[in-house]
Amino acid sequence: MTLSGSLIGTNAFPTRDTSQFDHGDVSFIIVAGAMVAFMIPGLAFLYSGLARRKSALSLIWAVTASNAVCIFQWYFWGYSLAFSPTATNGFIGNLANFGLINVLDDPSPGSPLIPALLYSFYQMEFACVTVGILVGGIAERGRVLPAMVLTFLWMTLVYCPLACWAWNINGWGFKWGVLDYAGGGPVEIGSGVGGLAYAWVLGRRQEKELLNFRPHNVSMVNLGTFILWFGWLGFNGGSAFGANLRAVVAIWNSMLAAASGGIIWCLLDYRLERKYSMVGFCSGTIAGLVAATPASGFIQPWAAVIMGIITGAVCNYATKLKFFFKVDDALDLFAEHAMGGVIGLLANGLFASHNVIALDGVNTNVKGGWVDHNYKQLYIQFAYVCATCTYAFVATAAIAKAIDLIPGLHLRTTPEGESLGLDEVEIGEFAHDYIEVRRDYTDWTAVGKPVSEQASEVPTTDTYTHGDRQDQEVHGKGRESPPLDLIPEKSVDQETSEVTEVY
What we know:
It contains 21 helices and two strands. It has helices at 3-7, 23-37, 39-50, 56-83, 116-134, 144-167, 172-176, 184-202, 207-210, 218-237, 245-273, 278-295, 301-318, 321-325, 333-351, 354-357, 376-404, 415-420, 422-427, 451-455, 469-475, and strands at residues 489-492, 499-502. Strands 1-2 form a two-stranded antiparallel ribbon. Helix 3 (39-50) runs antiparallel to helix 4 (56-83), helix 10 (218-237) packs parallel to helix 12 and helix 12 (278-295) packs across helix 13 (301-318). This is Ammonium transporter. InterPro entries: Ammonium/urea_transptr, Ammonium_transpt, Ammonium_transpt_CS, NH4_transpt_AmtB-like_dom. Residues 28-431 form the Ammonium transporter AmtB-like domain.
């Protein structure tokens, strides 16, 4: 008899009772977690599109690599430091679940209807998105290796404590009654204020790099925004931890806040330029989704519209704060994520409704905010905001300063590297190959002549690229003289003295 055959019908491997878990809820959270994971490429495309072309791939790399670092950290000890139920200090967990030990089919901290193992996966994706937002602080001048070291330490010393405060059953914020649905403190304030601190330690980009700055690919900005919006529905909807009506309300509120924020931001920009900015619309949409993160599972849909309008306006004006602080927050992490998170948390103090909270069938005894005559909730929310903002900034700045002092881990690239672009000095590849006329003269075809007749007319000099330094470096050749028909002739209008170039 084989080994497998000898075990059939025996109790050598006793089964575990998982009948308490709702299969529909389990399936819903698996899908929601996958949707949150899809936010990682959304962030990467968004950041890349907002940057200069010469540093576009470095931001995609940073977001991608930070995701891998975060996955390992969360498995290693991150989940335990954030959610271990046996820690009682209220600030950070212990190592009782180190390496996911004893994390299997026990009821999760979020809901008794899903297992702890699934809950840990879902919360891991939250952490991955958070560090993806944070590393946007390196934009166009930060080295990627120190950023990965910072990611691991930041997750351990900043994100895990913030998550413990709000969501651990023994966290001080949880016990005090803080209402933070899907991460206004750990995710939005953590990444937004942390990103501001990171950018402050890195210092400003060179002034010549800031002249005439424009996003290099607005189409990527739009694509990244809508990928994020899609994933955010899993982010906020899944935070009800079940396929229930509270999840549906959270999804509706996310849609309404995003739409309201995008419209208001775009209109505010229109009053200045008389143009309907795509970047502005996307920025407002993301700001609305950020505010919905802590509030979507607590408030009524009408309140989500009000919150979205306020968020679009406040976050738009908050983009000017970086000039007041003199911090080069290149991607407006503070204005979008920190300020949006603050507005969402304060909105809970005003608009949180017991009727919405109880729709999940689990949190039936949780009070709302002012609309439920629970007036002290606004004070609790405000104190929580102050605590998370202060801790996130101080701790992130301290971690960044400490890493910067380690030989070989200087956070910032050299001035020469900043001028060349991080794609070249850090990655060695490029998001976009520079556009060329032709890679070789023999590929050139003129209108009206067959290729056979042109071959004899082609000079024998080497490749000419109608790009710039990046192609010269990639292909190992300097720029040769262009074909004669590409050299412009100067033409001067005798009446206006205007010089034009005629090809």
